[in-house]
Amino acid sequence: MKDGSRVIGVIGDTHVPERLIRLPTQVLEVLSRVDLIVHTGDFTDHAVFEELTSLAPVKAVHGNMDDTYLSILLPETETFEMAGRRIGLIHGWGPRNGLSRRVLSRLGMVDVLIYGHSHEPHKEWVNGSLLINPGSCAGNVDGSRSFLVLELGETIKTTPVKL
User: Fold this and answer.
1) Which strand ranges, in their side-by-side order, compose the sheet holding 85-90?
2) 3-class DSSP state of 71
3) Residue 158: exposure state from Cβ atoms within 10 A (0-12, 13-18, ≥19)
């Protein structure tokens, strides 16, 4: 993108190989064209992390279902800057109800807060922070599958991708 804008592929709760044998081809195609891949945790197996790093730079946190290798390698939370925005990343915990507020209280004020855990796509603005959950390409609570593309520039744009 032009003017310092950046495109981030946001994915999480992939659960390979327990729920998916491998990442869907459509996911890999989209993620091969982004500036950064953000994964919200629950890769389940470190092979998915390695596959993603072959496509683009990756920022990721570990989830509650990740193998020991990823739980040691990846942090519980991550905060970074991109395209002039402060971005927070966390997997999440507990029931779906109230999850977005819990993760925001854990990371504090950021421009964009990316989280997972619930397998439920979500987008809301809270006190100037955009909270987004990409859902899961392994299966959302309603049976659908999803991830999203986040564009950071003069504005913030999210584009959900249904599988």
Assistant:
1) 77-82, 85-90, 112-115, 129-133, 122-126
2) helix
3) middle
pLDDT at 100: 87
Amino acid at 155: T
Site of tokens 């509650």:
64
Picking from 126, 152, 119, the residue whose alpha carbon sits closest to that of residue 36 is 152
pLDDT for 3: 67
* Dist CA 161 CA 50 (whole Å): 22
Token code pair at residue 52: 């993603």
Q: Is 50 helix (H, G, I), strand (E, B) or coil?
A: helix
Give the integer Cα–Cα distance in Å for 66 and 55: 21
Could you say which residues of the chain have pLDDT below 70?
1-3
Task: Tell me if 49 sits within 8 A of 70, measured CB to CB.
Answer: yes
N- to C-terminal Cα distance for the chain? 24
Find out whether 13 and 117 touch, Cβ atoms under 8 Å. Answer: yes
Q: Give the SS3 label for residue 30.
A: helix
What is the reported pLDDT for 109? Answer: 87
Residue with tokens 């890769």: 43
Q: Which two tokens stand for residue 16?
A: 């390979």
